[in-house]
Amino acid sequence: MKKTPQVTPPSPGSFQVPEGWVLSPHRNTSRYAMEVAYGRHAWRGIYLNDGAGNGYFAPGWNGLRLARNMRVVQRVAGTLTILSLLFFSGWTVKTVLDNKEYHRLSAEGVQTQALVQSVSTETSTRHRKNTDRTYTTDTAAVVTYSVGGDSFSGTVEHRSHSKDGYPEPEWRPGESVELYADPAAPEKIVVLSPYLEERTNPVNGSTWFLTIMGLGLSAVPAVIYFVSRSSRRKAEAL
User: Fold this and answer.
1) What SS3 class is residue 105?
2) Amino acid 8: pLDDT
3) Which residue in 172, 202, 176 sits closest to 191, CA to CA?
4) Parallel, antiparallel or unpaired: strands 150-162 and 176-182
5) CA distance 172 to 116
6) CA separation for the pair 238, 233 (Å, rounded)
7) Do the beta carbons of residue 161 and residue 135 sit within 8 Å?
8) Rounded to 10 degrees, what is the CA torsion of 156, 161, 165, 168?
9) pLDDT bracket for residue 2 (50, 70, 90)
10) Quick one: which of 103, 92, 98 has its CA closest to 209?
11) pLDDT tens-digit readout, 31-61
C-alpha cells in the first residue's frame, strides 16, 4: 500500500514572511493548506503557511485567484472528458453499424471476386512516451467486379500496424479480393473479413475493447475534473 507523503511545516519561530507577501484573512490549519505550502506539488511561489494556520500570499495572489485558476483547470478537464466520451462513443457506434452492414451484405448480398486495378498507400508513425514506435500503412485499392453480369468499379481500404517498420500494402495490382456486394445497390461493397465471418453479433470483442479503452482514457480528465473542483473550494478558504 502506497504511503501518503509526510508534509512538514516549519517549526515554531523558524518561519519568516517573505518581503511583500500579504497575510490571508483566513486562518487555515488543514492538511490541504500544508500540502499547498510544503507538499510535493506545493505552490511555493504563491502561498506559504507558518504551520500555525496563518497563511501568506505572494503579491497579487489570494485564495480567490487560486480558485479561479482551479476553475479553469476544472472546465478544461470537463471539456476533455466530454469530448473523449463523445469521440469514443461515436467510434464505437460507427464500428457497430459497420459490422451490422457487413453481416447484412454477407447474408443478403452477392459474394464476388474483384480484381485490383491500382493501389495507393499512405504511411505514418506514432511514438508515444515510454512506448515503442508504431508504423501504420493505409492501403486504398481501386477494384473492378461483376454483379448480375454487369461490371462495376469501387474502392476498398485497409489499415495495417506494425512495431517493426511499415507494413506492406494489403493488396497489389493484379491480385484478387473477395467482396460482398449489395445486389440492389452494387456500389455498396465490403471486403470479406475472416474475423467477422466467425461472428454473428455486430457487438463483438472489438467494440467492447473500444468501449473499455474509451472509458479508461476518459477517466483521466474526469479524475482531474473532480480533483480540481475539490481544490477550487478548498483554495477559497486559504
Assistant:
1) helix
2) 58
3) 176
4) unpaired
5) 7
6) 10
7) yes
8) -20
9) very low
10) 92
11) 888 888 777 656 667 888 888 888 888 898 8
* All cell numbers assigned to 99: 459490422
Helix or strand run (H / E) with residue 207: helix 205-235
Q: Quick one: residue 10, left, alpha or beta (phi over 0 = left, psi -120 to 50 = alpha)?
A: beta
Residue type, 238: L
Q: Please report where in the chains the cell 515503442 appears, as a residue.
A: 132
pLDDT, residue 122, reads 92
Give dist(CA 164, CA 204) in Å, integer: 28
- Residue 198: helix, strand or coil by DSSP? coil
> pTM value?
0.70
- For residue 147, the 8-state DSSP code is E
DSSP, res 30: S
Radius of gyration over alpha carbons of the chain, in Å?
30
Is-contact 96 202, C-beta < 8 A?
yes
- pLDDT band for position 205 (50/70/90)? confident
pLDDT of residue 13: 61
Half-sphere exposure of 93 (CA within 13 A, CB side): 6
Q: Are 189 and 108 spatial neighbours (Cβ–Cβ below 8 Å)? A: no
Mean pLDDT of the chain: 86
Question: Nine-digit cell at 102?
Answer: 457487413
Q: What are the percentages of helix, strand and coil residues in the chain, rounded to 5? A: 35, 30, 35
- Do the bridges between strand 134-147 and strand 110-126 make them parallel or antiparallel, or are there none, so unpaired? antiparallel
How far is residue 92's CA from residue 64's CA, in Å, rounded to a whole number?
A: 41
